[in-house]
Specification:
Elements lengths: L1 H11 L5 H11 L7 H14 L4 H6 L5 H5 L3 H25 L1 H115 L6 H8 L1
Helix pairs in contact: 1-6, 2-3
Length: 228
């Protein structure tokens, strides 16, 4: 488009509104239908290339359609066609001279596209793996929560059982202490009673010996024990 606008400027010495360029394209190249924004951008870029003639460009930036009608349309068409053909020839020569570079860039572009496809496939696989990993993580998290709840219940039960066992142990220890104390008391009493019995036995034997010396009769029970 810029080559076309430059050809029109070279042929007429003026710059025109996008609508006029669209009419010229409809006459000489109907297959080209650029938008108004594209033509305006190319016109602005072309005007920037010719800053040395800014005064003339500003004076001719907006031209009425009636001014275009005073130009010989056939001459303008031929000039524009020649300019476009010359531009195409220069472009073809430039493309032919840079064939190796263009082939290199084409190969690099193809390689980049292949790498992009590979990266996209890898990204899709990673996304799938990530989704599966998240599902497994959610499943494990639910299992962990259930296990944690069960462990908490078991811990409470164990704590209650430990408290009960502790109470039973303390009760048993108190019972054992009480039994030991009572056994100690009875043991002491038996020792005292045994000492008293031995003392009574000695006294009884002393009194009996004295009685026998004094002529007392031996009881029949004792005589029977002696016979046995």
């Amino acid at each position: 488009m810029r080559a076309f606008l430059r050809a029109v400027r070279d042929a007429t010495g003026q710059l025109y509104r996008p609508a006029i360029y669209q009419r010229l394209l409809a006459a000489v190249a109907p297959e080209r239908r650029p938008s108004t924004a594209t033509l305006a951008a190319e016109k602005q870029a072309l005007a920037g290339e010719a800053k040395q003639s800014a005064t003339r460009a500003e004076d001719c930036e907006i031209v009425d359609v009636l001014a275009l009608q005073t130009i010989d349309v056939e001459q303008l068409r031929l000039a524009v066609t020649d300019a476009i053909d010359a531009g195409m020839v220069r472009f073809a020569r430039s493309a032919g001279g840079n064939g190796g570079q263009l082939a290199f860039y084409a190969a690099r572009l193809s390689e980049t596209e292949q790498q992009l496809l590979a990266v996209r496939e890898q990204a899709a696989r990673l996304a799938t793996d990530l989704a599966l990993a998240r599902q497994l993580a959610d499943h494990h998290e639910r299992d962990a929560q259930r296990t944690g709840t069960a462990l908490a219940l078991e811990a409470d039960a164990v704590a209650k059982l430990a408290a009960e066992v502790t109470e039973m142990r303390l009760f048993a220890l108190r019972s054992i202490d009480e039994a030991r104390g009572e056994a100690r008391v009875w043991k002491e009493r038996s020792v005292v009673l045994e000492a008293q019995r031995q003392l009574d036995a000695r006294l009884l034997e002393t009194f009996r010996q004295k009685a026998y010396r004094a002529g007392a009769e031996i009881p029949d029970l004792l005589r029977q024990d002696k016979r046995r």
